[in-house]
C-alpha cells in the first residue's frame, strides 16, 4: 500500500502527467489520440486554483500536445524536454537536428514494412504496434544507426522505438524542473506508463516524491498503480472532490485492485 505524499518542508503538490498511455488511450495512429471533454475539464479545474500544481510531461511536440489539450494552455514539457512552456524552465540542449539524418531514418523504415514513422521536431518514432513481429528488426537497425551516429540514442516505449538526441530525456527535463525555485519545494507526483517515464520517476522518487505507474506493455499488473488510462482519468476527477486524497492506496481506491 502506498503511503500519503507528505514531504516535510514542501508546500503544495506538483502533478507531472504523461499523455499517451497515461491519461490518453494509445492509438495505432498517434494522430488519432484524443482527450475527452470531461478530462479536459478535470485538468482545467485542477490547474485553475494552483497554476504551479500541474505540468504535462510528454514526448509529443509542443504543438501536438497543445492540439490534444486545446483549448487549454497548460504548463508543458514537450519533445522530451527540447520544448517547453513552463515559466523559469531552461530548455535542454537538443543537439543536432533530426532532419540531418532523415535519409538514414527513411532507409531503415523502407526495410521495415508496416512500421509507421512519426516525424517530430527533434526526433523520429518507429511505431510497430501493427506489426509487432518487426520490432526486433527495427531495434537491430536502430542500434546500428545510433552506433554510427552517437549524437542520437534510442528511447524505448510501448511498441515504439524513438530516435532522440542524446542530450534530451524526460528524466533530465524533470530533474531541471525540480531545480526551478517555484517548483523545487513542491511534492512531485509523476504518473506515467513507459520506459521514458520510468527514468523520470526515479528522479522524482529520489527527492521524496511519488511515482504512480500505469499498466501496459511496460508495467505489469503486479507493479502498476492504475490498470489503464481510464483509471487515471477517474483518479484525476476524484482529486477535484477531495484535493487532499492524492496518497493512500491508489489501486484500492480507484482501480479496485
Q: Secondary-structure map with pairings?
A:
Layout: E1 13-17, H1 37-47, E2 54-57, H2 62-69, E3 76-78, E4 83-85, H3 102-110, E5 116-119, E6 124-127, H4 135-148, E7 152-156, E8 160-165, H5 170-177, H6 181-184, E9 187-192, H7 195-206, E10 210-213, H8 229-241, H9 250-255
Parallel strand pairs: 1-2, 1-9, 2-3, 9-10
Antiparallel strand pairs: 3-4, 5-6, 6-8, 7-8
Helix pairs in contact: 1-8, 3-4, 5-7
Short description:
The chain is built from 9 helices and 10 strands. The protein has 257 residues and is of the alpha/beta class.
Number of discrete helical segments: 9
- Rg calculated over all Cα atoms: 18 Å
CATH architecture descriptor text of the largest domain? 3-Layer(aba) Sandwich
Helix content: 25-40%
Average pLDDT reading: 89
Please write the CATH class name of the largest domain.
Alpha Beta
Structural category: alpha/beta
Major sheet summary line: 6 strands, mixed
Number of strands: 10
Strand-residue proportion = 15-25%
Low-confidence parts, pLDDT < 50 over ≥5 residues?
1-10, 244-257
CATH superfamily of the largest domain: HAD superfamily/HAD-like
Amino acid at each position: 500500500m502506498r503511503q500519503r505524499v507528505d514531504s516535510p518542508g514542501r508546500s503544495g503538490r506538483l502533478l507531472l502527467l504523461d499523455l499517451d498511455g497515461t491519461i490518453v488511450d494509445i492509438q495505432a495512429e498517434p494522430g488519432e489520440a484524443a482527450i475527452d471533454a470531461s478530462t479536459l475539464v478535470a485538468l482545467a479545474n485542477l490547474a485553475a486554483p494552483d497554476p504551479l500544481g500541474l505540468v504535462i510531461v510528454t514526448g509529443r511536440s509542443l504543438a501536438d500536445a497543445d492540439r490534444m489539450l486545446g483549448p487549454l494552455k497548460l504548463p508543458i514539457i514537450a519533445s522530451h524536454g527540447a520544448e517547453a512552456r513552463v515559466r523559469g524552465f531552461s530548455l535542454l540542449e537538443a543537439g543536432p537536428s533530426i532532419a540531418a539524418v532523415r535519409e538514414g531514418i527513411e532507409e531503415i523504415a523502407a526495410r521495415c514494412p508496416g512500421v509507421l514513422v512519426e516525424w517530430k521536431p527533434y526526433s523520429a518514432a518507429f511505431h510497430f504496434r501493427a506489426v509487432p513481429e518487426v520490432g526486433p528488426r527495427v531495434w537491430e537497425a536502430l542500434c546500428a544507426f545510433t552506433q554510427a551516429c552517437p549524437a542520437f540514442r534510442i528511447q524505448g516505449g510501448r511498441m515504439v522505438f524513438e530516435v532522440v538526441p542524446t542530450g534530451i530525456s524526460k528524466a533530465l527535463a524533470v530533474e531541471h524542473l525540480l531545480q526551478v525555485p517555484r517548483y523545487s519545494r513542491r511534492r512531485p507526483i509523476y504518473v506515467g506508463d513507459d520506459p521514458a517515464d520510468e527514468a523520470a520517476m526515479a528522479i522524482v522518487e529520489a527527492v521524496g516524491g511519488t511515482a504512480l505507474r500505469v499498466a501496459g506493455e511496460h508495467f505489469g499488473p503486479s507493479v502498476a498503480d492504475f490498470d489503464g488510462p481510464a483509471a487515471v482519468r477517474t483518479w484525476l476527477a476524484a482529486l477535484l472532490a477531495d484535493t487532499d486524497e492524492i496518497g493512500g492506496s491508489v489501486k484500492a481506491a480507484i482501480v479496485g485492485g
